[in-house]
């Protein structure tokens, strides 16, 4: 199976570019968009969840490092959000090189993609409006989770691993 490569090099370059200006002004807010899946990664989302978890760790570190310079760092952890990344993922199944190994999981793979684009998911515009409203506050929050599945994935984060594994096997019918 060909795994997607997610890099946050662009995020790092942008942060490195704006920090000196924010330091001079002694204010600013860096907003990184992670994902709630970083808390409780499920099947078929390993590379994506790992990439987002790395961004969460970077944000947590920067928040502490930059606080004394008047710079806030906020991590946005969206849940199910209708977006191009989700709608384009379904097209990738036709590109799986070793499909014979995954054919029996096709329904589960497609469900994983569809779940973030289905009924009850927030729109990207709604998420963006809420984030902007929070960023413009005098003291923006360090963490903002919003969207479908944020509550259940937060609970799974604190649950024992055996329970998380059981939950995913049950839900994803694996």
From TrEMBL:
<dbReference type="Pfam" id="PF00106">
    <property type="entry name" value="adh_short"/>
</dbReference>
<keyword id="KW-1133">Transmembrane helix</keyword>
<dbReference type="InterPro" id="IPR002347">
    <property type="entry name" value="SDR_fam"/>
</dbReference>
<protein>
    <recommendedName>
        <fullName>NADPH-dependent 1-acyldihydroxyacetone phosphate reductase</fullName>
    </recommendedName>
</protein>
<dbReference type="GO" id="GO:0016491">
    <property type="term" value="F:oxidoreductase activity"/>
</dbReference>
<keyword id="KW-0560">Oxidoreductase</keyword>
<comment type="similarity">
    <text>Belongs to the short-chain dehydrogenases/reductases (SDR) family.</text>
</comment>
<dbReference type="GO" id="GO:0005783">
    <property type="term" value="C:endoplasmic reticulum"/>
</dbReference>
<feature type="transmembrane region" description="Helical">
    <location>
        <begin position="143"/>
        <end position="163"/>
    </location>
</feature>
<dbReference type="InterPro" id="IPR020904">
    <property type="entry name" value="Sc_DH/Rdtase_CS"/>
</dbReference>
<dbReference type="InterPro" id="IPR036291">
    <property type="entry name" value="NAD(P)-bd_dom_sf"/>
</dbReference>
<keyword id="KW-0812">Transmembrane</keyword>
<keyword id="KW-0472">Membrane</keyword>
